[in-house]
Structures are given as C-alpha cells and as structure tokens.
Model the fold of this input.
Amino acid sequence: MATAVTPKVYKNYINGEWVDGSGAAAIEDRNPANRDELIGMFPSSTEADVNRAVDAAKEAYKKWRLTPAPKRAEILYRAAEILVARKEDYAREMTREMGKVLAETRGDVQEAIDMTYLMAGEGRRLYGQTTPSELPDKFAMSVRAPIGVAGLVTPWNFPMAIPSWKIAPALVCGNTVVLKPAEDTPFSSYNYVQVLAEAGLPAGVVNVVNGDGPGAGAPLVKHRDVGLVSFTGSTEVGRIISETCAPTFKKCHLEMGGKNIIIVMDDANLDLAVDGAIWGGFGTTGQRCTAASRIAVHKKVYAEFTGKLIERAKALRVGDGLDPKTDMGPSINEQQLQTVIKYVEIGKNEGAKLVAGGHRLDSGVHARGWFHEPTIFIDVNPRMRIAQEEIFGPVISTIPFSTLDEAIEIANGVVYGLSSSIYTRNVNTAYRAQRDLETGIVYVNAPTIGAETHLPFGGIKNTGNGHRESGPAALDFYTEWKSLYIDYSDKLQRAQIDNAE
Done:
C-alpha cells in the first residue's frame, strides 16, 4: 500500500521508558477510512517483552502500594487536566486511527477524562467498614488492599475510554499495570499512557506492551506474577482467558459480547424511539458491545415505526469521520467488514426481509476504506442467527410483538445480557421491564448505549463473569478486602465463645 509520508515508529513503554520490542516484526496502524494512510508502526511484542514489563511492574509495586492513596490520586487528577487541554487533538487522532466520527471520539476522550477524575476522587475515599466488636475493648474494621500486577487487555472500539476504565481504578487502588492494547488502535492508548507519564507517574507503575493476542496477550494473561486480569472483547476469547486464569485462581474480570434490544411499545414516542434506534444501532458503525442490533416493535405501531426507521437509515451519510457531514464511519478492518457482509447473507438466506442497505461501499470516496451501508432487516424471527449472534456492525433486525410479556421473552431469549431499552409512556410498563429484563443495564426512553462513568458497567450470562467496571464498583475488582481486629483488652478474648453467656 502507498504511504504518503514516512511512518512514525512507536515503541513499548516499560519501566518509564519507550523501548523497542524484542523482535523485528511490527504492526501497521492504518486509517480504516483510508487504508493508504499509515498512522504508525508499533512493535509486535513477544513473551520476552511481556516478561520485561511484568518484572518492571512487580518491582514498582513495592513502592507504589505504599504511596498514600490521595497522592496516587493527585497524579490521576493532573492527568485528567492534561487530557482536557488535549481533548480535540486526541479526538482527531482517534478518528484517524479508529474511524468513528469526531463527535464520538470527542466523547471517547471525554469518558477517559471523566473516569480519571472520578478515580482521582476515590483516592480520598476507598471506604471500608467499621463495626462494633462483639467483645469489649476490641475494635473491628475492614480496609481495601491492592493485589499486585494487573494485566489489562483492551479492545479497539473505545481505544482511550476502556483503557482508562481499567488503568485508573487499578492505579488508585495501589496496583501496577501492564496494558496490552488492541493491535488495531494502539495510538490512542499510547496517548493516554503518555499523559500519565507526564503527570508524574513513577517508572514501572504503568507499562505498555503492543502486539496481538497470541504473541503478547496470552503471555500476559498466564504470567505467574500477574495477580489479576481484566479483559474486554469477544466471548470466545474471554472464555479462553477464564480457562487460563482458573488453574491458579487468578482474579479475572471479563467484559464480553452483547445482543442488545430496544423494545418499542405502542404508547411510545415513535420519533424519539427512532432517534434511539438510529443512534443505538448505527452509532460507532454498530461496533459497540452495547449496540442495539435488535428492535422489537409492538404490532400496532410496527409499520409506522419501521417506515420511519428505514427512511432515516437511508439518509445517513457514510464516510470519513473527520468530515463534519459524516454520520457513520467505517468498520475497523477488512475482517470485521467481511463479518458484516457474511451476516447480511445469513439474514437473507434465513428469510428476513432486507429493506435498507446490505452492501459494501467501495467506490468513489469509499474506495480506500472499509465501509458498509446502514442495514435493516424487518419481520425477523427472534430465533434467526441475525437476531441471536453478535454481528458488531451496522445491521439492525426488527421483530414484531403483541404483548409486553412476549417482548421480554424475545429480549431474554439470547445468550448475552448486557444492555436493554424500552420506549414507553406507561410508568407501570417501564418498571415491569426494568425488573424482568435480564441485562446488567436497562434504559427507559433512551437507547442501549450511553453509560456514565459513575455507575457499574457490565452484564450477565455470556456477557460477563460477575465483576463490573466504572464507578465505585470497579474498586471491588482491583482490591481485596482485609478485615482487621484490634484487641486492647490486654487479655485473651475468644469470639463466639467468651461472649456466649
């Protein structure tokens, strides 16, 4: 492929220095809207690089865990301030790297800002519990304790936000970090870590090893000195990571796939619901674990709703995310685009009605990118593969229903359980839905995307393994509880025995 300028070569970040990888192989970071544009070259790291990074993190942990949490937090606060000043630059660089439109990459950087500020605030809290002892002259309390080296594996769709979700709470709790960013979007992670370094983070506290899953991710996950692993990505890879961590009982957090639904009741504000379906289904080109790939619509308003949805989808402008006229950017790479194309064919073969889109865009302004039309299937049977399997692309399936119970059955009839949404003006319906929908996140009169940093984020079933990101809930993963009993009676006291009389 032709490249206009000599590409910049980036390095791994180990023990406070940007260093070369141990091998000669490199990974190209290309603009998915224009694959002729090479953003940079990043190391294709090996187990040797991972070992160096973990060794650095393990050594740095000895001092970092003893640094007072408010002092750790002050570094995060300074980092957030730097991010604020550079938000526009980093957003533009992220659009070039990842493809989503500029408004969304600004939101991605803002989410990193929000999370970094939020965790800076937790540095002066990190609450435990104090409780009366059952024995006299005895004090009882619990405190949070850090775990050690955190191995973090992050995806390409939120290349700064998701690293911040993991790095910021890990650091404020006193852990050290080795990050393996997605090979498609390492530059945005580079920017975030560079900011942490400028904010005064000591050497070795955060390390970055670039590379693919087999070369860098797998050695990181299985490393004996990595005490906890946090992964965001596919359910298939998450299962492998879980199995890798299990023999040594390594603490493991998994944030995986979704097959999210918007339910549109017959009393809904249809124009608002269409807005939500367009944003939920086609925002980030459908490349979100929370994307609304299923829309269940009450039969009384099905024709009206789908008519409006189709009209809006056909009017969306697909192109380079830096163009202010663009509504939807490209898929991340050829492989992901081919997955979308495959599922469009599956949908047609299953008998779903293709009413909008369905084709790759590969001519004119789209010739050098990985573009696909916004695509809608109607009259979809909820058991069809396009309504069951995660596509991770701009494909929406609409499903008619007759009752709320039927809609909830459709919603819950998948292996995933991340996010769901209902549009209704009936408060009773809304409360029944939020109670009965089997997802970790429920929205009312809003789409399935739009989580805020101060509430728990995560799902159930094949979406997650019980842990949560964001908000104070994240602290539970990055710490262990330690219970403390201080007896100042100056005599032996036996709990449950000496207080029995």
Residues 69-98 form the longest helix (30 residues). The CA atoms of residues 141 and 484 lie 5 Å apart. The mean pLDDT is 97. The two ends are 83 Å apart (CA to CA).
